[in-house]
Amino acid sequence: MDKTLAPEDLRSIIVSIDLLSSNQDNTEHFNSEEFLQLASSSGLKVEHHIFSKQKFVSANHFLTKGKTDELKNLVESEKIKLIVLDCELSPSQERNLEKLLCARVLDRTGLILDIFAARAQSDIGKLQVELAQLSFLSTRLVRGWSHLERQKGGIGLRGPGETQLETDRRLIGNRIKQLKKRLNKQHNQKNLNRYSRKKNNNKLVALVGYTNAGKTSLFNLLTEGGLEAEDKLFATLDTTTRRANFKLKTIDTVLFSDTVGFISNLPTKLVESFKATLDDLASADLLIHVVDASDSNRDYKIKEVDVILKDLGVTSIPQIRALNKVDLIENEDIWPANNLYPEHKISSETGEGLEELKDLISERLFGNILSGWVEFSPFQAPVRSKLFDSGCILEEKIDANGKHQSLVSISQTMFKEFEDLEIFNNLRPVSP
Q1: pTM reported for the whole predicted model
Q2: CA distance 182 to 176
Q3: Which residue, of 25, 243, 321, 403, is most buried by count of CB atoms within 10 Å of its CB?
Q4: Which of 118, 132, 60 is nearest to 89 (CA)?
Q5: What is the assigned CATH class of domain 7-106?
Q6: What are 73-84's pLDDT values in tens digits?
């Protein structure tokens, strides 16, 4: 993909587009700031940020004639070599704009692909990005050979341009087949890992949410994962799974998975290419929807994530909504009421609300927490040892008869293993 730009060519013009013919809900939440952040995340130097409000889409250039003339004057006067539009251009519209403006043109999908290509670290992540890039490039090959002849006809009448295009399409098609084969192999391996996890009664909690909501920071607190958390869009592209670093009052192992962040108008090609990564959500036992509570567009982003989760068919999985970055909030009256999922305020920066969140996770995975004093006899040492290993014994004392009196706090799931023992009959449910 010959999309590489020299450092001196990173000067760009950003065009945010508001289609006034769209429904009121979309225009109300039109947010050009996010697109500007996307451009900055890719390393572009934004010279101008232009807004285009239009009632229709031009079949030739997408933009109106007045806006294309304005762009052409800017490009010529300041010698800009890159134009980035917040929309999805057809191959012909992209070619026509480049020919008219004499500059490289990139749409929203192309920009996100460039960011993904720079950030992917794992093998499967790189394969998924390359597949998305080649699928995107395959419809735009003609631009690279526009200087060659492309005659149509039978044998002996084909121009060199068409021959080269056929060769490129065949090579790209073969590479796409190879990538899909390798991704299917990786996908099968993940299925085996999921089967092994279920067999061992391990629980998986997946962190989901809008990009830059603080998922990786929360993941590090819950697992000591040591992942790099950055204040930029799409800092995480590869799914990482780690064991919880705290006891959940159960003998089952709990795993947390940090996933790629979502974004509004996520390109279809990316959703399809990242199927192997997004499949991790379908196998999760619990979803934690991490929300940037300090974001003024929080409610809109919550709706966007809910739409994507619905498209992925994972809305039936239990969910907790973690309102992150509460340390940046001063007005307590802005919190919305939510009747669908439990909400909990946290701060991955200060650790506020973290312990309560852990208890809520335990409750959602294993049921209510039961607590009370239990007297163990010497013959019940194995049971007491198991409870100690699971972090279920909070306090102990020895009575006058030399018996252990233990303050036990266990999950409802774990309680079922001991409910036949009369010593646990006095346990009572407590609020998380």
Answers
A1: 0.74
A2: 10
A3: 321
A4: 60
A5: alpha beta
A6: 999 999 988 999
